[in-house]
Specification:
mainly alpha; Growth Hormone, Chain: A; two-stranded antiparallel sheet; transmembrane transporter activity; membrane; MFS; transmembrane helix
């Protein structure tokens, strides 16, 4: 298909409207006749849920999704794994005299860990290839890179500190930065060749697969509009009040999990040495990774967001209350398992919800995800100051703030649910031809 048949820069094909893609539950089926592959429009007979989402029955589509899972997802996972391995290197280095070696005083270390990078591009890329029923699970798998890295970062740091501290005159934390940083650079170079910009520009898909990848997302988008300019997408996102509710929701949730930057310090309040402390940070994150996948799978399977977030946030609040009211070692260790296990599955549900709710155009979706991610990560600017070393071992201020942030996040979730319920009712009354609705 030549360039006149589509506009890859905008991610749309001019004949989409003609083929009846917008606002329908049509997809394209790859059919083979004498080795000639063509696209033929078919009506999907799969059962639709109340939001118009369908299950996959087309063999070509099933094969495509498996191919995406084997290519995009592993690369993004590895990148995010090293992203958080490097972040945790900074956290663990505090136990190996980082602050003393660098002459950090007062809240300077807190300022240091507040200067972090964020990763909205990966989330936007996933939203271009996966439907609303698929994306939460894929985001969960993606986010396990965070949790697996956080889990093993302590073990890796313990080994490096024990074996390389002082070698060639370098402190253990410096060796940790050198080793992990080298791997991260290698992964970044590899990703340059493997990650696509858009379904229609994916080199490792054939033409049939590229068209199918593009059109199935178009058919899954509520109130889909034609692609527009970046500036128009920016204005659309900024003008939609739901963008700001999602930003508030995500920011307060990320603020409530600020313990992640101080978990080794929190575990150390249990009275263990450095090696044991780093080892004990591993099990909660492994459990959190498994829970995140389960939560996101059920959220996507049943197209449900509100209750998944609400129930998990309620459990997390209970976990925060325990260390706020007691310094008992056993109770605090149980609390760590509780709030770590249920915290991280929420990230993918919230961002997946954002992408499918504000995805009327690719540009609006990209801006909305970037805004939520950026404002969410702004929490790293102020939350480190909730954990001053002078509050050790109780950290009462931090736990109370985390409880408050969680409560605000839950309120934002229910505001969004009520808004989308009203919007769906209005669509059914004023646009009866609509088949795809907002999920909540």
């Amino acid at each position: 298909m030549g360039s006149k048949d589509r506009d890859p820069a905008h991610g749309t094909a001019p004949d989409d409207e003609e083929k009846g893609i917008t606002g329908t539950n049509h997809v394209e089926r790859a059919e083979t006749h004498d080795n000639d592959i063509s696209l033929a429009k078919v009506e999907v007979d799969a059962k639709l849920d109340e939001f118009g989402a369908r299950s996959k029955t087309n063999p070509a589509e099933i094969a495509l999704v498996k191919k995406l899972d084997r290519t995009i997802l592993p690369m993004l996972w590895i990148m995010y794994f090293f992203n958080f391995l490097d972040r945790n290197a900074l956290v663990n280095a505090k136990l190996n005299s980082l602050d003393a070696d660098l002459g950090l005083r007062g809240t300077q270390y807190n300022t240091l860990i507040s200067i972090l990078f964020f990763y909205p591009g990966a989330l936007f890329l996933l939203s271009l290839f996966y439907t609303k029923k698929e994306i939460a699970t894929r985001m969960a798998i993606f986010y396990t890179g965070n949790m697996i890295a956080s889990s093993f970062a302590g073990l890796i740091a313990a080994g490096v500190f024990a074996g390389l501290d002082g070698v060639r005159g370098l402190a253990g934390w410096r060796w940790l930065f050198i080793i992990q940083g080298g791997f991260s650079i290698g992964v970044a170079c590899l990703s340059f060749f493997l990650l696509p910009d858009h379904p229609l520009q994916t080199r490792w898909l054939n033409e049939v697969e590229r068209q199918l990848a593009h059109k199935r997302i178009a058919a899954d988008t509520t109130q889909r509009e034609e692609a527009t300019s970046v500036w128009t997408g920016l204005r659309q996102a900024l003008a939609d009040w739901r963008t700001w509710v999602f930003c508030l929701m995500y920011n307060t949730h990320i603020s409530s999990v600020s313990f992640q930057s101080f978990l080794p310090t929190v575990v150390r309040t249990l009275g263990y040495n450095t090696t044991t402390t780093l080892a004990l940070t591993c099990p909660p994150y492994l459990l959190a990774a498994a829970m995140a996948v389960v939560m996101s799978y059920t959220s996507g399977r049943y197209n449900e967001r509100t209750w998944h977030i609400t129930i998990c946030k309620s459990i997390i609040i209970a976990g925060f209350i325990i260390p706020a009211v007691t310094t008992n070692i056993a109770a605090r260790f149980v609390a760590i398992f509780i709030f770590v296990t249920f915290s991280f599955g929420i990230n993918n549900i919230m961002l997946g919800w954002t992408s499918v709710t504000l995805g009327q155009t690719p540009e609006k979706k990209a801006v909305a995800i970037a805004l939520c991610n950026s404002l969410g990560n702004m929490s790293s600017v102020y939350t480190p100051y909730l954990w001053p070393s002078t509050d050790n071992p109780r950290f009462l201020k931090a736990w109370m703030a985390s409880i408050s942030f969680s409560a605000v996040a839950m309120m934002a979730v229910w505001v969004m649910r009520l808004s989308l319920q009203h919007k769906n009712k209005k669509l059914r009354n004023t646009a009866p031809e609509t088949t795809v609705f907002y999920v909540y």
